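Structure (tokenized):
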């Protein structure tokens, strides 16, 4: 189990499992056995008395994905308390990039769907999200000689993107709000926070409180994944006593990341990505739909323009600067990589148009197409940079003289 957990913590493995799950779902949904896939997705389980008689697809989106957002909440808090987001100077560029990378795709989507019928505008937030697991997996596959600052920039951007996406889901995709369950959810959430602040790690105490919080948030009408974020925010980051070893947030992240990357996200992708092209009205009709065009253009062009443009504007008019070793070509590759909007984009699509609807099928095709194009373009750009950095490293090795110090460094010292 320990070996399997260590494997699942690798960013590459999580991204590969996500892609495999989506590919299997697409193949099954478009095969002669597609009815079996739809029957499995619509299979209902759970107690009806608690309004939890959900389909397997709903359990994946509301239940399992809460684990993913719990890990995201832990990571968000750690970045704000002890990471790069704590330092405004370091955080300025990636925060601006995240905001630009959400605003421009939303504007592009609205431009495509301003006059579209059938409530198409409700999907304006679909192309605003970045899939952190998928994007980091692509970067990990490409990265051999790319600067370490590139991953840090992408991680910080994705963390802020997740925070904004969570706020969008809570504010704009809550159809009806039941205040009583929402207020009652504060009781188990408060007890959970009290225990973790006292550094209690006993699962038999924490797990029932977490489940109760999730059930009450689900009953309130707010999307249940928000409960995962709130529980993550409650966990302390800093150790109570100075010394070596991880804080409680880092410990929980270490424990739950394999479950998130190896189970929650792939299972959600399996149930969310299985779109039948014939059921969506045919490929030609689907591609010409303004919703699909808005999503694909928003993810590929909108993210690139928003991330790159916001980064350039902030550096141009403030004192914020790119980290040492990063070039604008790196930022372009990273901006394209941010257009991979898989998990959260599919979730927002279901919330906007309803799971299983024809528009939801179009959303899946748009998200899959846009994410794939963004990943391919980012791979082309970053691989060219990778070859450039590899050539520089080889030249430095050749220029190393007898004393073991590269001549380029000695030349820098002389200058």
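Design, position by position:
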């Amino acid at each position: 189990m320990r070996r399997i957990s260590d494997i699942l913590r690798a960013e590459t493995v999580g991204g590969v499992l996500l892609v495999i799950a989506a590919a299997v779902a697409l193949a099954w949904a478009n095969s002669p056995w597609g009815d079996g896939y739809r029957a499995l997705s619509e299979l209902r389980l759970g107690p009806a008395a608690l309004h939890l008689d959900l389909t397997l697809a709903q359990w994946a989106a509301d239940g399992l994905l809460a684990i993913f957002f719990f890990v995201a909440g832990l990571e968000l808090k750690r970045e704000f308390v002890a990471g790069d987001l704590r330092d405004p100077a370091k955080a300025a560029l990636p925060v601006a990039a995240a905001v630009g990378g959400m605003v421009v795709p939303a504007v592009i989507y609205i431009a495509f769907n301003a006059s579209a019928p059938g409530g198409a505008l409700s999907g304006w937030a679909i192309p605003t999200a970045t899939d952190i697991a998928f994007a980091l997996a692509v970067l990990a596959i490409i990265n051999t000689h790319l600067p370490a600052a590139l991953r840090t920039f992408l991680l910080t951007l994705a963390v802020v993107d997740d925070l904004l996406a969570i706020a969008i889901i809570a504010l704009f995709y809550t159809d009806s709000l039941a205040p009583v369950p929402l207020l009652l959810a504060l009781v188990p959430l408060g007890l959970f926070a009290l225990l973790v602040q006292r550094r209690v790690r006993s699962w038999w105490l924490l797990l029932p409180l977490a489940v109760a919080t999730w059930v009450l948030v689900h009953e309130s009408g707010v999307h249940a994944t928000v409960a995962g974020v709130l529980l993550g925010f409650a966990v302390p980051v800093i150790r109570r006593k100075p010394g070596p070893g991880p804080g409680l947030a880092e410990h929980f992240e270490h424990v739950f990341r394999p479950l998130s990357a190896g189970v929650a996200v792939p299972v959600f992708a399996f149930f969310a990505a299985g779109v039948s092209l014939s059921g969506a009205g045919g490929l030609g009709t689907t591609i010409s739909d303004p919703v699909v065009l808005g999503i694909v253009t928003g993810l590929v062009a909108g993210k690139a323009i928003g991330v790159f443009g916001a980064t350039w504007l902030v550096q141009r008019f403030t004192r914020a600067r790119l980290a040492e070793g990063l070039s604008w070509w790196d930022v372009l590759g990273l901006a394209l990589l941010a257009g991979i909007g898989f998990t959260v984009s599919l979730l927002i699509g279901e919330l906007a148009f309803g799971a299983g609807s024809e528009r939801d099928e179009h959303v899946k095709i748009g998200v899959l197409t846009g994410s794939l194009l963004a990943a391919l373009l980012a791979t082309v750009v970053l691989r060219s940079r990778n070859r450039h950095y590899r050539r520089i490293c080889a030249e430095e090795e050749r220029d190393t003289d007898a004393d073991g110090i590269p001549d380029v460094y000695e030349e820098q010292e002389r200058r």
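Reviewer-requested clarification: Residues 358-399 form the longest helix (42 residues). Residues 128 and 260 are 22 Å apart (CA to CA).
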